[in-house]
Amino acid sequence: MTSVKRRKLLVVAAIVAVAGLLTVSLLSGKYQSALAANVTMCQNDTSYPTVNVGEFTLQTNRWNEDATPSNFNLCITYDDASASGDFEVTTQTGTAATNGGPTSYPSVIAGCHWGTVCSPDNHGMPMQVSAIGSIPSSWSVETPSSGKWNASYDIWFHSATTSSGQNDGAEIMIWLDTRGYSNQNENPPGTIRPSGNIQAASFTAAGYTWDVWIGRIGEGIQWNVISFVRQNAPGGGNSSLIGFNAMDFVDHAMTLDCPTGNKCVLPEWYLLSIQAGFEPWEGGVGLKSGSFVAEASLFSDPMVVTDRQTDDGRPLVNWQTPFDVEAQGCPNSTPTLVIAEKGNETNPDPLNPKSVTITDFTETPAGSGNYVFHVGELYPMHGDVTYTITFPAGCSTPVQVIEGYIDPSGKVRTTAGDPVSAAIVTLYRSDNADGPFTVVPGGSDIMSPANRSNPDTTGQDGSFGWDVLAGYYKVRAEKPGCVSPTNPDQPYVETVVYDIPPEVTNIDLRLKCDDSGGLPVSVTKFTDWGSGYCANVQVTNNTAGPVDWNVEFSLAPLGGGTIYTFWNAVYTQNGNNISNVHANPAYPWNKTLKPGESTHSVGFCANR
Fold first, then answer.
1. CB-side exposure of 285: number of CA atoms within 13 Å?
2. Beta strands in 283-399 (DSSP E)
3. Which tens digit of pLDDT belongs to each residue from 532-575?
4. Is 109 helix (H, G, I), strand (E, B) or coil?
C-alpha cells in the first residue's frame, strides 16, 4: 500500500562510512581532483537525511513510524561522483504490516519534494500539466529475490507552483517491479498492494501492461493516488524502463475518475517532482537504483513546414501547394487542425470556404505524440490565416495556434470568367521596377522547390503559381487561339509589375477564347459496338499564322465514356470533358499547324 503520509525531509546527512581515494594531478598547469568513493548514508531515528549527488538529491525517507522494530535502521550506499544518483539499499532492518504502508521510500529526487528538498537541477519543474509536452525518462533497477517490496517511479502534483508540505493534487506511482504483490482488493494475508481499488481495465505503455489502482488518502490534506503495477513483474533481477515517456501515464490518469468526482489529474495542477526508489515492507537489502533520467519538457511550438516566411517571420505557403504542419501533443490522440482566414474560424459556405478542418495526420513514431498534418491545396483561401491545433478533452495538450500567410498566385480565365486550362504562363523577373525583365530560367532556385517549371501550364481550374525570392515580377499568359481582350492582334495578356514582398494575391488574367480553345475541332465516330466506340479528332488552324494546337471537347454528344487509348496526342479527362488535347511531346511531328492546315491521324477509343 502506498504511503498514508510522508514526513517533511530535513537536510541532515548522517555519513557513517567513506572509502575511496583522493588523487591530485597536474594537467596543463592546473590542479584537478577526482573523488571515486562509495558513501553510505543512514537513518536510524526521526531525522530524514538527504544529500545532493550530481543533478539529483538522494533521500532515505523513513515515513512510517509504526514500522517495527524500534531499532529501525536504513542505509543507502552511493557513488558521490555519479551523475544520475545511483544508489543501493545496504541496510534495512525495519518491517511493516503487509496490510498497511511500507517502512520507507529510499529514493532519488528530481524537482522539489514537498517544497522542502529540491534537487540541484529542477529538471523542468514546476510545470503546469497543461503545458507539459513530454517527460522523457529512463530508469533501471536491480532487485533481490527475497523480501516484500516494490520498485516505484513516483510523480507528484500540487495545486500551486510550490508547496510547504504535503502535495494536495495527486501521486502517480509506477511499480516497475514488485515482490509479494496481490492484485486482489481484499489484500490476502502476507501480500502487498497499492492504495485504493484495482480497476477493471488495464493499461499498456512503455512496453508493458499495467494493473491500474485508484485511491485517495491523507490526513488533513488529501491527495489522489493512481498506481500502475506491472503485470507479471519478475520479482527480482534486472528491470528497466528505458526511453519511455512518463507523460503516457499522466495522460491516462487524466482520463480516470477519482473519488472526488473529478478526473484523477487536472490540467491546471503543477508537476513538482519525480522520484524513483523502493518501498520495502520486509527485507530490501540489495535493492539498487541504476541510471535515472527524468525531465519535464514543454510542448514544442507547432510548425508549418515551408521554406518561406513573411517579413515578420510568419510561415508562408502557396494556396496551390500541399504542405505539412507539425505539432506535439499527448500520444495516441486524434487532434484536429483548423486553418482559417483571420476572423473566419468557421464558415459553412463550401463554395467560398474561409476555413478548413484537417483530420489527415500521422503520428510518427506511433505513440510518440509527434503529429504531422497533411494539408492539400487551400485555394481559394488567402492572406492572413491562423492554424489552430486542438486535442480532445482529457488530453493535457493546450490549444496550439500559429499565425501565417497563404500566398495565392492566380488564375487564367476567359472574359466570361471560365477557367482556361493548359494556358502557358511565363514568369519574368527584374532587379528594378522599370526592367529590363527576363524569363526566370526553368529550374532556377529563384523559385521554391514546390514549382520550378517556367514556363508552366495552368491546371484544370486555370490556376498557376510560383513561390519566389524578393524582386520585381510580372506574369504572361497565352494559349493558342486566345488573344488579348483589348488587342486581338496580341496573343497573350500580361500583369502589371509586382514588387515582392509583400505577397501577391488574386492575380486574375483574362484571355478572349472561343469554347474550343481557339481552334475549330471536330470529333467523329468511325465505329461503335455499344459498350464502346472509336473516333477521329480533327483540329483546323483558321488563323493567319502558325499555331501550336491545344483544344478541348466533350464526350457527351458521343454518349460519354472513358478514353482508354489516344493516338498521336495527349489529353486530360475529367468526366465527359476532355481538355489539354495537344501533340504528344514524345512525337511532336504534328505539333504546329500552318494557316488552313488540319491535324490528321489523331483519334481515340473509349469504353462506355
1. 8
2. 288-294, 297-298, 303-305, 316-318, 323-328, 336-341, 355-358, 361-363, 370-375, 383-390
3. 999 999 998 887 778 888 888 888 888 889 999 999 999 988 88
4. strand
